[in-house]
Write a sequence for this structure.
């Protein structure tokens, strides 16, 4: 596979997610293609297209084998298979400044909604909201210009890309007026005749470190300029300002004052948008993480484990659970107080972060109980990790309570079992470790 050349397609006008500039692939998906090349050695060759429709047609014909970043839809599943999603992106409603906040599609009423042709939302709106007045456009850039010109009332697009276009073209009369579901869960698509390639791509995506995902997002989150320039729009804009200067030259002082006020309001809007995005990110973090330890919470872990079960059943792989808790933790709370108990949990979290591997996923299951998912890991290697954790905890001197021990239950996925059954086996193994004296590791029966 490392020596194979893979031809792929992109959306040529969807920055900062992806685009084609001077014949080269740029944007977020370009960075992920580079990371996958480093991991797999696959040589990726870009098929240059003029539109997203042309890219989709090329995929259907087999002229390109892979789409670098797109949503899964029922129509696309007819000719593509999809990797696990690797990038989440919010979708938003954009309107003029006189439009109040829109809480969803139901609040659109008789407004004309602009949607990009062949994007996932065009298919979604047609299926679930056929009563809406929809205008299909060729690109997000065309849709935003149509909104600014009054041809449509609301436009639906991706937050990062519409923000980039608004900044590029100076569309100060537009603002984000609501969040539009569903949000993007972006994957790579592989034509069905080459579905064997999907496992290689999935495995490579799993190996990309979390820090790399964060760095890619940071690099493109604040994109403000795109190499492509619509000169027709610039010439129209220049002509408009010449006319304004000729007709209102005597009122220059008033215009200057008006522009300053407008810029101040625009900056305030941009600040509010940034705050909204920051708060949404914080809320998303809180919904998937434990507030005390910042580890993943139970809700996130259940969802992630169910995804891992689907992966294991598809590729005939194995994974393991390590379920453990602190021995005699109740005595710590009773003797020292719950605040000291919380400090112990935070110190234990710091020990975990220094021992687990990058691929391991840790959550605080509840109270003093922790669960570690070890993807693509045998029982033998998982036992090594459990022993290393047990020794590190025993060797550590906790600040307020001194030495502590933990009991461990290890369960390897038995194949075609549910998450609940898998977890219950690990829980029984942990109970056996407690029953037989604590500070020990017990492997669950299959």
């Amino acid at each position: 596979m490392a020596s194979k050349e893979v031809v792929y397609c992109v959306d040529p006008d969807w920055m900062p997610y992806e685009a084609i500039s001077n014949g080269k692939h740029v944007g977020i998906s370009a960075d992920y293609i580079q990371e996958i090349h480093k991991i797999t050695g696959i040589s990726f060759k870009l098929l240059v297209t003029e539109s997203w429709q042309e890219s989709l047609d090329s995929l259907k014909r087999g002229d390109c084998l892979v789409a670098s970043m797109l949503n899964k839809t029922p129509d696309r599943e007819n000719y593509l298979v999809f990797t696990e999603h690797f990038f989440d992106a919010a979708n938003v409603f954009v309107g003029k400044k006189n439009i109040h906040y829109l809480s969803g599609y139901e609040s659109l009423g008789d407004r004309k909604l602009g949607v990009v042709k062949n994007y996932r939302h065009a298919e979604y709106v047609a299926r679930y909201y056929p009563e809406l007045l929809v205008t299909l456009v060729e690109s997000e850039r065309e849709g935003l210009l149509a909104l600014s010109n009054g041809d449509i009332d609301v436009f639906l697009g991706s937050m990062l890309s519409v923000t980039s276009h608004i900044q590029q073209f100076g569309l100060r009369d537009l603002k984000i007026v609501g969040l539009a579901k569903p949000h993007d869960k972006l994957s790579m698509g592989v034509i069905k005749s080459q579905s064997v390639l999907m496992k290689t791509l999935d495995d490579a995506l799993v190996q990309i470190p979390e820090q790399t995902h964060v760095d890619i997002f940071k690099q493109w989150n604040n994109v403000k300029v795109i190499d492509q320039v619509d000169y027709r729009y610039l010439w129209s804009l220049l002509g408009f300002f010449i006319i304004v200067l000729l007709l209102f030259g005597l009122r220059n002082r008033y215009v200057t004052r008006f522009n300053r006020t407008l810029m101040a309001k625009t900056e305030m809007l941009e600040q509010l948008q940034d705050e909204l995005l920051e708060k949404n990110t914080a809320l998303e973090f809180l919904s998937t993480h434990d507030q005390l330890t910042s580890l993943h919470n139970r809700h996130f872990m259940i969802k992630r484990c169910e995804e891992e079960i689907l992966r294991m059943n598809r590729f005939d792989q194995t994974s393991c659970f390590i379920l453990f808790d602190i021995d005699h933790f109740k005595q710590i709370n009773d003797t020292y107080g719950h605040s000291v108990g919380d400090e112990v949990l935070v110190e234990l979290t710091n020990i975990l972060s220094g021992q687990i591997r990058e691929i391991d996923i840790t959550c605080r299951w509840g109270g003093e109980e922790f669960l570690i998912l070890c993807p693509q890991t045998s029982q033998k290697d998982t036992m090594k990790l459990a022993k290393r954790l047990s020794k590190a905890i025993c060797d550590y001197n906790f600040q307020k309570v001194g030495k502590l021990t933990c009991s461990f239950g290890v369960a390897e996925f038995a194949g075609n079992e549910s998450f609940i059954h898998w977890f219950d086996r690990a829980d029984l193994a942990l109970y056996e470790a407690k029953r037989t004296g604590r500070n020990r590791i017990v492997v669950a029966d299959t």
Summary: The mean pLDDT is 87.
